[in-house]
Amino acid sequence: MGLVVLGLVFYVGTIVWISVASAGHTSDVADAPEAPVVIVLGAQIKDGKPMAFLRGRLDAAVQLVEDGKARAVLVSGDANGASGDEIAAMTNYLVEQGIDERRIVGDPYGLDTYDTCFRAIHTYGITDALIVTQGYHVPRAVALCRDAGIDAHGVNSDCGCSTPTLVKNAAREWILAKPKAALDMLWGRDAKVTTPREDSVQMALNVQ
Fold first, then answer.
1. Which residues of 92-131 are buried (b: 16+ CB within 10 A; e: fewer)?
2. What is the structure's pLDDT at 1?
3. Contact of 138 with 155, CB cutoff 8 Å
């Protein structure tokens, strides 16, 4: 019984922690503030193309750039993912939508949201960013990036997916992902893959 109570307290604390950390730092695309970089979190692809879930995130990033709210895009995901190279798929899609490829930087080792945030600041030197994902995921992404030291603002993107897919992913977020995020923040671990600091984002920001 004691362990059940302890687990419940930890779970509730997780939800409160993430909610407080992200409060006032989320919006829709139209109301998003300006930031130098927009970070797009990777997701499953099919036949080398973004699926609906990921297209929603990428379309939001395109709109942010076109509206002048961000100048560069960091696409962060798994270049060796089970469904294929997420970075190539995201980059190609953005270019097809009219984004200058010189403004796009790919992080092939953004293996989860924590790793994306850790590497964004430690590898790419990003300290101020918009981070785009679906609404239920935004608070966790913002909390993780702000904990890493980034002045992050989350932007809600369309899902474009079926109701069963949305329910499944939302349930995973609330039951598994949020508690894991709290443990990661408490532990303060390094990203699974660390690489030397590079200036590719700064170069993308300097594109005229």
1. bbbeeeebeeebbbbbbbbbbbbbbbbbbbbbbebeebbb
2. 65
3. yes
Q: Which of 53-62, 65-74, 157-166 has the lowest mean pLDDT?
A: 157-166
CA–CA dist 148, 159 (Å, integer): 26
Residues with Cβ within 8 Å of 171's Cβ and at least 6 positions away in sequence, in order, are: none
Cα–chain center distance at 53: 13
| Contact status, residue 124 vs residue 196, Cβ threshold 8 Å | no
pTM of the model: 0.91
Which amino acid does the sequence have at 189?
R
Residues 6+ apart with CB under 8 A from 29: 60, 63, 64, 67, 155, 156, 157
